[in-house]
Design brief:
The structure is a single chain. By secondary structure, the protein is mainly alpha-helical. It contains six helices and two strands. It has one domain (12-108). A hairpin with a 5-residue loop joins strand 1 and strand 2. Helix 2 packs across helix 3 (36-42). It is globular, with a radius of gyration of 15 Å.
Length: 114
Amino acid sequence: MTAKPVTAPLSPEIADRLLDLLSTDDNFREAFQRDHLTALRTIGYQSPEPAQMTACGLTVAAQPEPFAGCKVEDLAPKEVIRSAREEIRKMLTSGLAQTTPSLDTATAKGRLRR
């Protein structure tokens, strides 16, 4: 049985800062939609270390970058991110099984109807 790859978790401090800015700051929200990794780096995020060689010559893969496949086309409103903050924070700080939290408007609207 092969374990599912997991993306590197964000530190609680970076996750909190990210959620603070996504729920309040229009300039950061715009930057995040344009280039999420660069936006994350502006708040102190550092990419995981690259893969390392072991003494046996095997390569141990680094955890994939958080949000590596993330492309937010229509970021959810600030209020929606604020209301789902704890749920999103828990996902961000525990690492993701290749599933990036959906921050698009369409998904957020569906969540509100439940």
